[in-house]
Write a structure and sequence with these properties.
Elements lengths: L1 H8 L4 H13 L5 H18 L2 E6 L11 E4 L6 H8 L5 E5 L8 H7 L3 E3 L4 H16 L4 E2 L22 H5 L4 E7 L3 H4 L6 E7 L5 H4 L4 H28 L1
Parallel strand pairs: 1-7, 2-5, 2-6, 3-4, 3-5
Antiparallel strand pairs: 6-7
Length: 243
């Protein structure tokens, strides 16, 4: 219902936005930064139309230098839009192959020079990991969901997959844990009531901290930090309501 409301309220602008995003993915004359700025603008317009507010915390924790990777929990279809709305720095995305042919998402993936990953094809997955590694080394930032799929459990997490961290570790890049709260509500609940989604950009794990850890250990640690952050945030929010 909320997606329908966004489309209806942006009815006159939707074809224009779609064509511009499509052109960003096709034209070599449009820079990556310009593509990101456009998609960010469209995301903010969609959020206003859909009565969604994104509340961002910890923006100061984003590394000063590019070439880092965001690793958030994965709650719903809306998750990527949280980062497109709130993050001041351009980034690329990695999505599962099944979603890469969905209209608009396909065009956004091309405009952001992202990668679809086939989890059933080991060779294709390894190729994507190596490509991301090289991109990160060159200063490209990425958003990767280490659960691999939506948790469908609200603010509870699935296990994080160690393989999701290989690109970051091979590039010796900063790993930035991110905690999403209530991000399942905009698109996964059948409602058009105003909703607020929170994202907490947490302190990065730099190479010196994780260099002696296996990827499965990194995955478990990042999950632990995100879980603790979500629990603390919800506990504090409940305390404020009571007081």
């Amino acid at each position: 219902m909320r997606i329908a409301m966004m489309l209806i309220r942006l009815f006159l602008k939707t074809p224009y936005y779609f064509m511009r995003i499509w052109w960003c993915g096709k034209s070599k004359k449009v820079s990556f930064e310009e593509s990101f700025a456009l998609i960010k603008k469209v995301t903010k317009a969609a959020n206003r139309a859909g009565k969604v507010t994104v509340e961002a915390h910890g923006l100061e924790n984003i590394p000063d230098e590019d070439g880092f990777v965001f690793f958030p929990n994965h709650q719903g279809m809306y998750d990527v839009l949280v980062f497109l709305d709130s993050c001041p720095r351009p980034f690329s995305i990695v999505i599962k192959k099944e979603a890469s042919n969905i209209i608009l998402l396909k065009q956004i993936l091309a405009a952001l020079e992202g990668y679809p990953m086939d989890r059933e094809d080991v060779r294709q997955s390894m190729k994507v990991i190596m490509n991301i590694t090289e991109d990160v080394k060159k200063g490209r930032n990425f958003l990767i969901f280490p659960e691999g799929t939506r948790s469908r459990m609200g603010n509870k997490l699935l296990d994080f997959k160690g393989g999701s961290f290989k690109s970051a570790t091979k590039a010796k890049a900063p790993i930035v844990p991110c905690a999403l709260i209530d991000s399942f509500k905009p698109f996964d609940e059948n409602s058009i009531q105003p909703v607020t989604v929170k994202v907490i950009y947490m302190k990065p794990m730099y190479y010196e901290e994780y260099k002696d850890m296996k990827t499965v250990e990194i995955a478990a640690e990042v999950k632990r930090r995100i879980e603790n952050t979500i629990e603390e945030f919800l506990r504090n929010s409940e305390s404020q309501k009571i007081s």
